[in-house]
């Protein structure tokens, strides 16, 4: 059973305070569970999202047969060794990403509506408005158990100020997939070094990081003592701000202690801290996937979202022999040559994802592997890149979700089934007490 | 509600005893039966116990007892001064009688307040906001930090982000303070443990780069000047990226030869030469040509571009590694200007410069600069922050702790804004010892500094009740507390040495000293914070960078204009402060500060170049805040003007009479009549008046905003309106006084300056106190304005008045403790 800070009544904490706050009191509030202490009866479920842009060659994506016996389509071939761990879902459409009278801007609406299933507000100004995304709902519920409630990663940062794509939408809609509230988009980090430091602390080596964590904790201890002295000089009604300060410091100390505990208990051999952003795209993606696996392994977080490439991406996949920019080709105009190139790019992306799944499969976690206990949604916010359609969307689910997802199936849905139905199912799989999400009309049956 | 004729209102104009006239109030008589019968006849018809119109009843109240019910009577005073009550169309008393009545009320309340002040109670623990944090670090350590990068935005209230009650603390904020403290300490000390990081600076895509940019030498065009603190002596990678067309991702305008200079502190460290998109090396050879097809010139907008691959990799080679000494420096990147000849094309280009969708003017532009480093850095360089921090150096091991004690005491005193106690210093010394054991003297100071920057003594402004103070009693704030109030008001930063020393010695309140200090602080460059933070929020200047007028309707609008708008208003107000002009000149000035871009926008001839210079407007229309593009654009919609937004702005910020918020679910205005004819703005606004639920407030807002229709949604003058009709610029103040156009509005406001003066004073007092104002502050506001009357209400007099006022000088002890 996880003991969280909320379990201890606040009065007990304040009563226990004289002029200093002794550490043993904090220990009692630190969650005792770690990945090694799990049992099969209480598995720790992880959730991941991976996004690919500019649509896909859906004819080559969707497998021909449905059900348990089906052949992987050409684009999904890289998943062959893991076929029994994936579920292909076809026929879903995300109507909130359609124009609904707002004109162009599908590249903005696609990502904004992908995890929210809400039609985003067309504006270039500060009054942006979308919807709370499903990953954040899960993070809000589970986040208290880990150092970070969730992790948002991407490979391409924004370069444009104001409008992106010239359709009257603020760049923030393309820059992020995650919204904490309908008006608070979360930034996505592209620098592996920053992500590493966020997860494991400041410092190039393990020793340095441990020292920094310890220093931070001792600084916060001193701050708490100072706050205690300050508090006694104030009358009761004036103590509100000081109490708020104390609460905040305590919460941060809890996270630090958690990180220190993980550091001590884990035999995790962390790689060297990355220096910065790799020049090579494949290397960058590999580092970001590795960081996500590490995050799950060290229980730094249980919810990750990764934008593998950004809408409107102009990347030229020269390694695949394609010199045209991605977005340019995605406007294929039914040219078979261009369609073939798109399929090649899609397949390449799937292969990068497959490597990640393999890493998760070979990592032990409790009584199984990380892949057994994780649920990942891989897909895109756009279907046909030329038509800018949002149905039928490319969707693959992977992982066992700790016994709740059986793999090796192709679930073919009636065309234009709301994508939100899938998001709702995912939320329920992660124990969210919801029966509606976005424009859902009922949960998809995934079991 | 009936809307009476304007004729009735004309009688009431300008007849009230002005607050600005110090003599007038003495002539009024004591409260008498006249006042009570005034109320009975004109007010109680609606404001009685049974009807309670607007939740107000005056039936049982006696104006002679005004101080006891000041909360009600201050509302009465406000409405009467604005001429808003009795409402138009109802019977109204003789203006002279009203003005006598108001003067009596004010005098009675002010007299009582002088004997029993209510200075109010700003928050006991008031957190530094971002701007104050940044300035405090700058003044304490001589280190510049980008707070937008380090800290989340602050919550605001009453229009300002320095209101103590809403500046909260959260775990996220503590984590950010912790990581910011580490980074700042590292840079301040110049610690060897600083690892290479990348900082990227972007140029907005719609900023002109065809002319000399501010801060760059003549003979150059475009680019960027970046103030950057290089943390260590060492090597830094500088990488440039050029602007690209959004569809093809090709660098724009690479045909021909282009020279790009990289300078540090004005000295060129590298020149890149691009010839047709290929880098020319030092020895004159060109980089190898990429494979690619030549696209026929002229296929895009008169400017052809070469093979896709060349165009897309044109900026790959734009990186250089330079050795730089630690410290704050200016990094410049710019293009050499080879020809002053304007780009010719068949169509007149827009004033906007935006390399998007083939709109390039035939030259490359800078998109971003990335600085990565330090590599092979050496610690302990000579930087301003080290000089500031390390006031002594340890000569032997035994002297190290004594030296550290000196350094940390000096630091803590400035950082905590008060004399330090042994507990303060020992706390810091403990961390010094811990850091020194791990990494030496510098590392010890660094860790102690980190501890200092995260504690409440630095992050919170504290004010304490005197021990054993009676609940609710009034006391003067201590000199040390007063010093902080002063410096955060005028500088948004910590007190400097002179101010702090005076306060510690208890000399701050010596006769004449306080006023001398205020004037000294206003003359200091740090007083720019007043413009940046107070004016920036009061006049919505912080919103200017975010305005996005519709590009189809306003094709000339770009970043140059955005920056120019903001700069104009900042320079204007700064000028008024520096030259100590009367406050009213904010409205009545017939001049402003503009550059060429702004001059072209406003239609002023003969102004050339990027530099802002003072220009007098001959037409009598522009001039003062009401004619400045910043306010006019921020108070418009992206595709049209809004008389309502502008009217509300005037009500709030000039007349001090903000209307209540609109009801929910207000439908959009109808644009066209039944025949499909586009309605003029005035015709559209008529719909406000037809609906009785709307008319109450709109009768006041619309007549203020409609006369400003001579300015379009981006502040340009026009003679025809939205539907091309000739403009009808008639309007009226809430008290009924009629006028025409912005010139008329200005004159009308000047004849009754009290509202504006009161509003400015109230806003500034809110900002100065860090709390919202209440009815009990009204006597102080009136006192400040009366006190400044002798000097024509110069801004400095108002500021001195604020500093000397009871709310600023005193504080109320907490009320009886609640369990």
Notes on the protein architecture:
- The complex is a heterodimer of chains A (447) and B (819).
- Chain A is α/β, with parallel strands linked by helices and 447 residues long.
- Chain A has two domains: 1-42 and 192-276, no CATH class; 45-190 and 280-447, Alkaline Phosphatase, subunit A.
- Chain A has 13 helices and eleven strands.
- Chain A has helices at residues 10-15, 23-27, 58-61, 106-114, 134-142, 172-175, 192-200, 206-232, 240-265, 281-297, 326-330, 336-361, 419-429, and strands spanning 46-51, 86-93, 151-154, 179-181, 184-185, 303-307, 364-365, 368-369, 374-379, 395-398, 409-418.
- In chain A, helix 5 runs parallel beside helix 13 (419-429), helix 7 packs parallel to helix 10 and helix 10 runs parallel beside helix 12.
- The longest helix of chain A has 27 residues, at 206-232.
- The radius of gyration of chain A is 23 Å and the shape is globular.
- Chain B contains 29 helices and 17 strands.
- In chain B, a hairpin with a 2-residue loop joins strand 5 (257-264) and strand 6 (267-275).
- By secondary structure, chain B is of the alpha+beta class.
- In chain B, 39% of the residues lie in helices and 12% in strands.
- A five-stranded antiparallel beta sheet of chain B has the order 3-9-5-6-7, with no helix packed on it.
- The two termini of chain B are 49 Å apart.
- The chains are: A alpha/beta (447), B alpha+beta (819).
- Chains A and B meet through helix 8 and helix 9 of A and strand 1, helix 7, strand 2, helix 8 and strand 10 of B.
Top keywords for this entry?
heterodimer, A: 447 residues, alpha/beta, Alkaline Phosphatase, subunit A, 2 domains, seven-stranded mixed sheet, two-stranded antiparallel ribbon, 35% helix, disordered N terminus, B: 819 residues, alpha+beta, five-stranded antiparallel sheet, four-stranded antiparallel sheet, 29 helices, 39% helix, flat
């Amino acid at each position: 059973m996880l003991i969280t800070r909320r379990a201890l009544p606040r009065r007990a904490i304040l009563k226990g305070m004289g002029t200093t706050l002794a550490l043993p009191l904090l220990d009692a509030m630190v969650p005792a569970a770690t990945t090694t202490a799990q049992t099969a009866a209480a598995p720790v479920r992880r959730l991941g999202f991976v996004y690919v842009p500019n649509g896909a060659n859906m004819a080559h994506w969707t497998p021909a047969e449905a059900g348990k016996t089906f052949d992987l389509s050409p684009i999904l071939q890289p998943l062959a060794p893991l076929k029994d761990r994936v579920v292909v879902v076809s026929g879903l459409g995300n109507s909130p990403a359609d124009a609904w009278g707002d004109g162009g801007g599908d590249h903005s609406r696609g990502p904004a509506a992908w995890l929210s299933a809400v039609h985003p507000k067309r504006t270039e100004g500060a009054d942006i408005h979308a919807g709370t995304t499903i990953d954040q709902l899960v993070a809000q519920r589970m986040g208290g158990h880990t150092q970070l409630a969730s992790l948002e990663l991407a490979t391409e940062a924004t370069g444009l100020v104001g409008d992106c794509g010239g359709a009257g939408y603020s760049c923030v809609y393309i820059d992020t997939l995650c919204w904490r509230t309908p008006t608070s988009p979360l930034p996505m980090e592209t620098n592996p070094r920053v992500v590493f430091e966020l997860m494991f602390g400041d410092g190039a080596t393990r020793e340095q990081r441990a020292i920094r964590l310890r220093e931070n904790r001792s600084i916060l201890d001193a701050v708490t003592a100072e706050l205690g002295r300050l508090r006694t000089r104030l009358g009761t009604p004036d103590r509100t701000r000081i109490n708020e300060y104390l609460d905040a410091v305590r919460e941060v100390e809890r996270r630090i202690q958690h990180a220190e505990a993980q550091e001590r208990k884990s035999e995790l051999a962390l790689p060297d801290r990355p220096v910065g952003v790799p020049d090579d795209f494949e290397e960058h993606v590999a580092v970001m996937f590795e960081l996500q696996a590490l995050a799950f392994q060290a229980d730094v977080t249980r919810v990750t979202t990764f934008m593998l490439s950004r809408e409107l991406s102009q990347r030229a996949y020269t390694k695949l022999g394609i010199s045209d920019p991605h977005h340019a080709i995605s406007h294929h105009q039914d040219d078979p040559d261009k369609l073939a190139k798109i399929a090649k790019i899609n397949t390449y992306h799937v292969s990068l994802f497959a490597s990640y799944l393999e890493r998760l499969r070979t990592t032990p976690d409790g009584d199984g592997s990380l892949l057994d206990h994780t649920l990942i949604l891989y897909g895109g916010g756009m279907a046909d890149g030329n038509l800018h359609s949002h149905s039928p969307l490319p969707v693959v689910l992977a992982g066992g979700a700790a016994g709740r997802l059986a793999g090796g199936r192709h679930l073919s849905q009636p065309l234009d089934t709301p994508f939100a139905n899938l998001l709702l199912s995912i939320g329920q799989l992660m124990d969210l007490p919801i029966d509606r999400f976005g424009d859902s009309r009922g949960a998809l049956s995934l079991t | 509600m009936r809307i009476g004729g304007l004729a009735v209102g004309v009688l009431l104009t300008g007849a009230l005893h002005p607050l600005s006239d110090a003599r007038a109030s003495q002539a009024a008589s004591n409260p008498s039966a006249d006042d009570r019968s005034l109320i009975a006849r004109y007010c109680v018809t609606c404001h009685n116990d049974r009807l309670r119109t607007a939740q107000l009843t005056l039936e049982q109240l006696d104006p002679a007892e005004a101080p006891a019910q000041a909360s009600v009577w201050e509302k009465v005073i406000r409405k009467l001064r604005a001429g808003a009550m009795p409402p138009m169309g109802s019977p109204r008393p003789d203006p002279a009688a009203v003005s006598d009545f108001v003067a009596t009320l004010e005098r009675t309340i002010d007299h009582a307040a002088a004997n029993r002040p209510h200075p109010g109670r700003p928050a006991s623990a008031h957190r530094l906001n971002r701007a104050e944090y940044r300035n405090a670090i700058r003044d304490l350590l001589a280190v510049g930090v980008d707070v937008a990068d380090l800290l989340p935005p602050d919550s605001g209230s009453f229009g300002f982000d320095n209101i103590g009650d809403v500046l909260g603390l959260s775990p996220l904020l503590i984590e950010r303070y912790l990581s910011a403290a580490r980074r700042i300490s590292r840079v301040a000390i110049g610690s060897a443990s600083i690892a290479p990081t990348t900082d990227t600076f972007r140029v907005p895509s719609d900023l002109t780069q065809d002319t000399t940019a501010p801060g760059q030498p003549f003979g150059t065009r475009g680019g960027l000047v970046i103030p950057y603190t290089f943390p260590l002596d060492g090597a830094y990678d500088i990488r440039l990226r050029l602007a690209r067309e959004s569809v093809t991702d090709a660098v724009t305008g690479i045909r021909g030869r282009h020279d790009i200079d990289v300078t540090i502190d004005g000295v060129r460290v590298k020149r890149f030469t691009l010839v047709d998109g290929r880098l020319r090396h030092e020895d004159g050879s060109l980089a190898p040509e990429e494979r690619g097809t030549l696209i026929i010139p002229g296929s895009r907008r008169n400017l052809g571009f070469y093979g896709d691959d060349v165009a897309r990799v044109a900026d790959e080679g734009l990186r250089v590694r330079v050795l730089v000494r630690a410290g704050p420096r200016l990094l410049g990147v710019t293009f050499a200007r080879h020809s002053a000849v304007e780009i010719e094309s068949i169509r007149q280009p827009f004033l906007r410069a935006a390399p998007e969708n083939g709109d390039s003017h035939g030259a490359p532009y800078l998109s971003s600069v990335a600085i990565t480093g330090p590599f092979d850095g050496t610690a302990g360089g000579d930087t301003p922050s080290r000089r500031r921090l390390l006031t002594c150096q340890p000569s032997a091991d035994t002297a190290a702790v004594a030296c550290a004690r000196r350094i940390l005491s000096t630091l803590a005193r400035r950082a905590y804004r008060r004399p330090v106690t042994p507990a303060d210093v020992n706390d810091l010394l403990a961390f010094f010892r811990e850091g020194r054991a791990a990494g030496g003297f510098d590392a010890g100071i660094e860790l102690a500094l980190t501890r200092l920057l995260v504690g409440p003594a630095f992050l919170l402004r504290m004010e304490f009740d005197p021990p054993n103070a009676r609940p609710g009693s009034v006391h003067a704030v201590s000199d040390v507390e007063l010093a902080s109030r002063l410096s955060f008001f005028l500088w948004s930063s910590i007190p400097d040495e002179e101010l702090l020393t005076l306060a510690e010695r208890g000399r701050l309140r010596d006769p004449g000293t306080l006023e001398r200090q205020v004037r000294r602080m206003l003359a200091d460059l740090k007083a720019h914070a007043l413009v940046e933070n107070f004016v920036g929020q009061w006049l919505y200047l912080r919103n200017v960078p975010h305005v996005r007028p519709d590009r189809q309707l306003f094709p000339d609008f770009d970043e140059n204009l955005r920056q120019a708008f903001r700069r104009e208003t900042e320079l204007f107000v700064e000028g008024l402060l520096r030259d100590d002009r009367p406050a009213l000149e904010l409205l009545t000035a017939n001049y402003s500060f503009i550059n060429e871009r702004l001059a072209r926008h406003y239609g002023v001839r003969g102004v050339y170049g990027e530099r802002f210079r003072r220009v007098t407007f001959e037409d009598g229309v522009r001039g003062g805040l009401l004619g400045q593009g910043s306010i006019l654009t921020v108070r418009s919609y992206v595709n049209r003007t809004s008389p309502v937004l502008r009217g509300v702005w005037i009500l709030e910020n000039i007349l001090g009479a903000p209307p209540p918020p609109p009801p929910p679910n207000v439908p959009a205005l109808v644009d066209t009549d039944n025949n499909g004819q586009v309605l003029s703005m005035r015709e559209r606004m008529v719909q406000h008046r037809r609906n009785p639920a709307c008319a109450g407030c709109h009768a006041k807002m619309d007549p203020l905003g409609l006369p400003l229709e001579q300015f379009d949604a981006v502040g340009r003058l026009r003679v025809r309106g939205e539907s091309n009709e000739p403009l009808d610029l008639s309007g009226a103040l809430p008290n009924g006084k009629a006028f025409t156009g912005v010139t008329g509005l200005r004159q009308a406001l000047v004849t009754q300056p009290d509202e504006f003066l009161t509003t400015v004073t109230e806003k500034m007092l809110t900002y100065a106190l860090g709390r919202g104002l209440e009815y009990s502050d009204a006597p102080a506001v009136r006192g400040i304005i009366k006190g400044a009357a002798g000097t024509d209400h110069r801004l400095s007099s108002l500021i001195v008045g604020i500093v000397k006022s009871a709310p600023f000088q005193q504080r109320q002890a907490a009320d009886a403790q609640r369990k």
